[in-house]
Predict the structure.
Amino acid sequence: MQGELLAAVTGIFGLVTGIVFGVMAGPFFRARAVDRRTPDPPRPDGSTLPPGIAEVLSALPSSAVVLDSADRVLRASSAARAFGIVRGEELVITELLALARQVRRDGVIRETDIEVAVRKFGPDATSFAVRVAPLGGTGLVLVLAEDQTEHRRVEAVRRDFVANISHELKTPVGALSLLAETVQDASDDPEAVRRFTDRMQTEAARLTAVIQDLITLSRIQGAEPMAEPTRVDLGAVVEEALDAVRMPADAKGIELVGSGAEGVTVLGDEGLLGTALRNLVANAVAYSPKNTRVAVSVGVSRTSVDISVADQGIGIPQQDLERIFERFYRVDAARSRATGGTGLGLAIVKHIMTHHRGEVNVWSKEGSGSTFTLRLPRPESRGADASRNTDRQEAAQ
């Protein structure tokens, strides 16, 4: 079936075969057979869609348009209409129409990138990678437009990540190199050597923290939810998280309070949950003024277990709340580095919660403090979901 369809399309359209096959990458040819004996009905001007092309266009995931010799739309995929590339029988993107006319004149396949403002899908423009090719000698032209918006967004995130991690590693490494030279020059001054070596230890610890956070993020990012989680005692997790920050909290006179965790359990990975809670508590202490309070409380509802970390710190501006879980995003970069943060802690928290089929929420007001909440499914709820899934699988069998 696949060979017959490919042969039919190749015999009729020539160059367009490679274009269509490259975009489809095979899935269409397994989907259904094509009746090559029944062409589309002719248009009033005599234009007709060659056999098989309608089925090809309907299966394409990208926006596809066939123009006749008079630049009218002979066939358009639903995606092309949804994105506003085609309206009625017109190709409304002027740039594409001009490109189609050039291709019809000289028969040369052309490619370009365009951006289309699609109000239906939000204020941002949609980016398309476009390829325009003639359909043999029929006078018809095929326009293929592949939505590249998400791909470009991912590429931008990747570039930002590479730039950020390069900067984060470059700073402590450069400081260590400079301090080493200074220590060498001050070898006859024991007091200076001690002072500079202390700084070296601080920078080395910062470098270690960045690398460790990267390793943790790499391990959990994109991981599937755990198939066999274990029961985790939240009382022990909360106590361990508070103990981890007790020294810096005492140094600032910050009161640490934990409540509601006794006897409460969840299903998950104790180490990862401990990491998430430690990150939140450490942030709360780092961004709180002296002589305030950081409270960790656990609440249980019908379907979830909530672990909240509340502080009386500086708060987070409203415009930054949606971005604080991005890797290396800092509301105040200078203050964050002064507190020893790597910029990865909240990103790690977010991925850990995704790994546990949970979520992390934040409430904050500048000057009043912040509350971060880890929301996990109750063990009973997860058990019921698993039971229902098992019942469905057994019924299907």
Summary: The CA atoms of residues 252 and 369 lie 16 Å apart.
